[in-house]
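tool_log.txt
---
The assistant was asked to compare two proteins side by side. It first ran the structure predictor on the initial sequence, then on the second. Raw inputs and outputs are pasted verbatim so the downstream comparison step can read them without reformatting.
(1)
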Amino acid sequence: MEDSAAAENGEQSRWDRVKGRIGDTAALLWFSGRLTLGLQALVLVILAVGVFTWAALGDNLSGDKDVFDLVLKLESLFFVVLSMGLLPREKEGRTLEVLLAASRTRHGLLLMKFAPVCLFVGAVAAALTTAFYWLTGGGFSWPVMFGVPYLVAATMGILTVVLTTYLRNQYAAAAMAVLIAILAAAFWLDPVRTFYAVEPGRMMMQAPPNLAIHRILVAFAFGFLYDHAVRRLERVELWMK
């Protein structure tokens, strides 16, 4: 009986510690999110509602490819706008040194800053995808329409974070990230063809791209950029001057 009671107490203690850690993490994300997002989040939500209203009332979407293109552009804009000031604001406010000293790992610091952005954009992306799914009468795959643009846009976001460690101005970093995306779309790849679907008229001229491989490559690009951002945080003396 005593052994059983001790085992139950130990299990309860472990469960209490897990709940405590989850609660602490949620509180930290909430606090960091309030500091990170601010008024920008409200403005971007209003923009998303306005774009959906424009698309719904004006009959401006001819199919699922137009939905994909619009959702990708919106989410990319959200990630760039919210990511460009994550580190520069802390640097300008002389609080980055405090965060670096308080954080156990650079992964933890980056996650504390970037995770609220990912969660916010993910919530908006889910709402937009659901709204467009309803608007088009279920004319596309919801998981694909939600996941693929989100992954590409998140890569844009982490690219912006990396650029802020090279450029002294956060707006210059955002402009550079957007310029890279525009040049890539104009001269290298069409996002709709590369990540979503092949245009029927082009299938006879060239082999259709392997969408799965391209999506996996984007995931690898995100991982590489994330790791590079962590490495830049580990050598903060290179860009804090």
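(2)
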Amino acid sequence: MAKKGNMTARVLKSLKSRPEVKTPIATEMFLPNHSGDHSAGRVLKTPSKDNDLVNKSYVDSEIASAVTNRHDTWSNVFVTRVNTQSIPNNSDTKVEFNTVKNDTLNEWDEDTNYRFECQTAGTYLVMARVFFSSVAWTSGKFAQISLSTSNHGTIRISRTITGDYTEFVESKGFTITELDAGENMSVLIKHNRGSTTNIYSVDGFSYIIIIRIR
């Protein structure tokens, strides 16, 4: 009687000696198209359900629309002072920023009132700098910038304390504030040097930047 192990070995050897037969499932494969900007399959131009897939054209147009709308309809202001302005001692004086570099919504009045006239209520980032000509200062004097708003009062954003020197002195700072539609805002500069002091008369050294951020 043959042993079981020998029988199993003969069967395995017989199977290995036979050529393997491969049966093709299909010569081609087709996958349904439910996305992409192709013409085949079910492509949705505008999704109607949370899990709907959309085509590339829809996504591209949505992104472009969001970027364009934010840039064109939100405040972005950059204005400078290009000539000198005399600032009296110890008195809040409006800085007459008179050269518009950028103003997306035409909200800055550079001809008469020298102020920002807000069109849309929101949250605004405001940065300002006033740069004085080189004169003699004594220790403990100051130069400070404030924002004067029609609805939110006066907001001080910077105060520079001087030493004993003859030098250019600047005051600069930033703040984030709420503004209402129709509200106006201007920049005030004040110092106590003891006599009238002039703003430096070179474009770009004194400026205000206003950007709506929300």
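---
observation on (2): The chain is about 15% helix and 35% strand. Residues 15 and 199 are 100 Å apart (CA to CA).
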